[in-house]
Amino acid sequence: MNGIDCATKLNFTTASNLKSAGIDAVGRYLGNSWKGLTTDEVKVIHEAKLGLFLIYETNPTYAGYFSYDKGISDVQSAIAKAEALDAPNGICIYFTVDYDAQPGDMGAIQEYFRGVRDGLSGKYLVGAYGSYQVMEALSGSPYPPDKYFQTYAWSRGQEFSAHIYQWSNDITIRGVVVDQDAITGDAGLWEVKKMFENLVVYGDNDDGAAKLLAWKLGALLAHIDTVKPEHYDCAKNVYMVGGTTKPIERAILVSGGPGTGRIETMQAVLNL
């Protein structure tokens, strides 16, 4: 898929313009700096139907930056920022080696990524950005990253089998200065939620009424014990059939009311 990464904060107009230009996913930076991703920006990126990949970077531009302890401290900062954005567990955070790293630097870089892996503890996937030489060194370490993001810069024409390949820098697309990326489908993206219109939820005694309502609405149907939070998130409308308690605040309760039974709940469905 076609992707870009950029330091520019996107709004709905610029995100939509990128989508209309054929972009499928964007890479943005975790942090509180001028280029840091915000919750409002996450929303507009997803509203524009763009995937998102997360990049963490402070100043990894020289060999002395990298160590095991620095990997641990960077992860602590990255997790706090990702959680503040409600980034779901299991997506990737890409940590960068943003210079022409030399063979003698690779030991420290490997130790840094060991710290990254230990610090993340499986909460998010470990991603690494850098040159071909960095990708090669990390892939051969005892603690390789989960995902690879190679830049053509400093790679001297060599191409690694990476999940993201940055093949061009400082290109303007629809008014936004970007780097261009080729992205595979398993790059650990924060994907756009797949929305559906209606979800009908029911308890043990109201399956008949719930099935009728699901048929009337063309809705998905699920027993309340099987529904996960992400199912509620992906439904525009949630209906709770029977009982007196809503599973989430915005749910619409369809019930005969306190002290009533299945017949009254069925009548409530027919009246809806």
Account of the 3D structure:
- The chain has two domains: 2-183, Alpha-Beta Barrel (TIM Barrel), CATH 3.20.20.80; 196-271, Rossmann fold.
- The longest helix is centred in the first third of the chain and has 17 residues, at 68-84.
- Helix 3 (68-84) crosses helix 4 (106-120) and helix 6 packs parallel to helix 8 (262-271).
- The strands form two sheets. An eight-stranded mixed barrel has the order 1-2-3-4-5-6-7-8, surrounded by five helices. A four-stranded parallel beta sheet has the order 10-9-11-12.
- The radius of gyration is 24 Å and the shape is elongated.
- The mean pLDDT is 94.
- The chain is of the alpha/beta class.
- Helices cover 31% and strands 26% of the residues.
- The protein has eight helices and twelve strands.
Percentage of residues in DSSP E strands: 25-35%
The third-level CATH topology of the largest domain is TIM Barrel
Contiguous uncertain segments of 5+ residues: none
Derived from helix and strand composition plus strand pairing, the structural class reads alpha/beta
CATH architecture designation of the largest domain? Alpha-Beta Barrel
> Tell me, what is the CATH class of the largest domain?
Alpha Beta
Mean pLDDT across all residues, rounded? 94
Strand order of the largest sheet: 1-2-3-4-5-6-7-8
Q: Quick one: how many beta strands?
A: 12
Tell me the series of helices and strands, N- to C-terminal.
EHEHEHEHEHEEEEHEHEEH
User: What is the CATH H-level superfamily of the largest domain?
Assistant: Glycosidases
